[in-house]
Design a protein that fits this description.
Elements (H helix, E strand, L loop, with lengths): L3 E10 L2 E11 L4 E5 L6 H8 L7 E6 L2 E2 L7 H6 L2 E4 L11 H5 L6 E2 L2 E2 L1 H14 L15 H14 L4 E5 L7 H16 L3 E5 L3 H7 L2 E6 L2 E7 L5 H9 L18 E10 L3 E9 L3 E5 L6 H8 L7 E6 L2 E3 L4 H6 L2 E4 L3 H5 L6 H6 L7 E2 L2 E2 L1 H14 L16 H13 L5 E5 L7 H16 L3 E5 L3 H7 L2 E6 L2 E7 L5 H12 L1
Parallel strand pairs: 3-10, 3-11, 6-9, 9-10, 15-22, 15-23, 18-21, 21-22
Antiparallel strand pairs: 1-2, 1-4, 4-5, 7-8, 11-12, 13-14, 13-16, 16-17, 19-20, 23-24
Helix pairs in contact: 13-14
Length: 497
């Protein structure tokens, strides 16, 4: 008997059929992956299971009990043993570990919270994951990886039978990923059923027992582990064989340097960075989490103020103290967190695209609606933003389309240098291929690209040259033709010693 059974689930939103007769099950002690492009229906299906939204029709069985949707909500789903670990964690940063785990469920004695019992219960849970930390510790003092483990412990404390993991390895280090996988396997061995959603297919194949592929709101196929190759999963996701994930390089970078960084230092972050970048070159910055890649990008763009060092752009010395200076010298920046730092989610596609240089779209002191609409339409089309209208709010778009809007926003300033930090984070394989193609075309047009990525195959597939960083320093560089995953990881490991 399956632990959970979803039968012919359908859900229609205005203009979109999000789910179309979806049926799947989850067994006890199983890790079942859901994969598909953005908009395939994965999140909608899991939100139905979590009681966040109701389906239009279909049946849900938990441990052979048929669930009545009219009485089913988030509270009921928790009582039925379903926990959802979202990509954006739901912890309160100013509260302690114990207070978060037992939020609204703390033990009470004589009408007040029994803190002795609360901390003792929390300690038992922390011991399960071998987390040696005081239960009184504030959440804001923890790394993202530790916060994620606290979120899982919170689910376990609610006697969860089924746990949904949504992109759980986004933003955590390689070591934290390994520890997370150990924890998930322990949960599987204890008899829990696990739904696992991820765009990182290598980890899906390594971890799960079955893979269900969704496309356009329908189940395309469910594969056992033995049949779940990366190539087969991708072809099922996109409806064709993907042979062009990384574009071919058709043009060599020019010989002249567009950017020269000399002796760049920032206390506790960057140490003596020296780097030259040629016109039309894609330079990949690679290193483990904490290597200093994003800090280098933030400093170059003026988000972080350098302690010392100098920049030259096209041979001329420039001073960059704030983002406005960087933009003036022709530098654009797509930060890692597009939702918090890169986009105005409540505003339209049009408003986001023109935001980087408003004066280009004004007639004196008055904004020109005609100029705004013309530019936004042009860049939306150029970057293949899928939308019914440029007046649609950005929060309504898929992750891949949000990333394209952010690219359009910075290309509207006609940059000489474009910094992209994790440009394909959280987007599906088809959108990744489109972003890679855009970056290569920009380089062919003479734009120099500095790309940060935690995915080594992406760095190797897109870059012309690799810069390897560790502990705020450049440890080596190599042309992509002479680089391999083995040589890069060896260089990083040697840097640790």
């Amino acid at each position: 008997m399956p632990l959970l059974n979803l039968q012919k689930i359908s859900k229609q939103f205005p203009g979109v059929k999000a789910l179309d007769d979806v049926s799947l099950d989850l067994k006890q002690g199983e890790i079942h992956a859901l994969v598909g492009e953005n908009g395939a229906g994965k999140s909608t299906l899991m939100n139905i299971l979590s009681g966040i939204i109701r389906p239009d029709n279909g049946d849900l069985y938990i441990s052979d009990e048929k669930i009545a949707y009219e009485k089913y909500g988030t509270h009921t789903s928790i009582l039925k043993g379903i926990a959802h670990v979202h990509q954006e964690l739901s912890l309160c940063s100013n509260m302690s570990i114990a207070e978060n785990i037992f939020f609204n469920r703390a033990p009470v004695k004589n009408g007040t919270i029994d803190y002795k019992d609360l901390y003792a219960n929390t300690k038992k849970l922390l011991d399960l994951f071998e987390i040696d930390i005081d239960p009184k510790t504030s959440i804001k003092r923890l790394s993202f990886g530790l916060r994620q483990q606290i979120e899982i412990l919170k689910a376990i404390s609610q006697n969860a039978k089924i746990i949904i993991f949504d992109e759980p390895t986004t933003g955590i280090s390689e070591n934290e990923v390994k520890k997370l996988f150990v924890i998930i396997r322990k949960l599987k061995e204890s008899g829990l059923g696990i739904f696992y959603i991820s765009h990182k297919l290598d980890e899906v194949i390594a971890l799960v027992d079955r893979v269900t592929v969704l496309r356009d709101g329908k189940v395309i196929d469910t594969l056992p582990k033995a049949e779940a190759s990366k190539e087969k999963i991708i072809s099922l996701m996109v409806g064709r064989v993907m042979t062009d994930l990384y574009p071919k390089k058709t043009k060599e970078p020019e010989k002249e340097n567009i950017l020269e960084i000399e002796n760049l230092n920032k206390r506790d972050l960057l140490n003596n960075i020296n780097l030259d970048i040629r016109k039309g070159e894609i330079v990949g910055l690679y290193g483990l989490v904490g290597a200093g890649r994003s800090e280098l990008c933030d400093t170059l763009f003026g988000v972080i103020k350098k302690d010392r060092g100098s920049y030259k752009i096209e041979g001329k010395k420039v001073e960059i103290k704030r983002p406005e200076d960087a933009i003036r010298y022709g530098i654009g920046y797509l930060p890692e967190d597009r939702k918090a730092q890169g986009l105005f989610l409540q505003m339209s596609i049009r408003q986001n695209i023109i935001a980087s240089k408003l004066k280009n779209y004004s007639n004196g002191f008055v904004m020109s609606a005609a100029k705004e609409k013309s530019a936004a339409a042009q860049y939306s089309k150029q970057f293949g933003v899928v939308t019914s209208s440029i007046e649609k709010t950005v929060k309504q778009l898929s992750g891949g389309n949000q990333q394209k809007v952010m690219l359009a926003k910075w290309l509207a300033i006609r940059p000489k240098i474009l910094i992209v930090d994790e440009p394909t984070k959280g987007i599906d394989v088809n959108a990744k291929a489109e972003i890679h193609k855009i970056l290569r075309q920009l380089a062919n047009d003479g734009v120099s690209v500095i790309m940060v990525s935690s995915e080594l195959p992406e760095v190797l597939g897109v870059s012309d040259r690799l810069i390897i960083m560790h502990d705020g320093e450049i440890k080596g560089q190599m042309n992509v033709e002479e680089a391999s995953q083995e040589s890069i990881m060896k260089l990083i490991q040697n840097s640790k010693n």
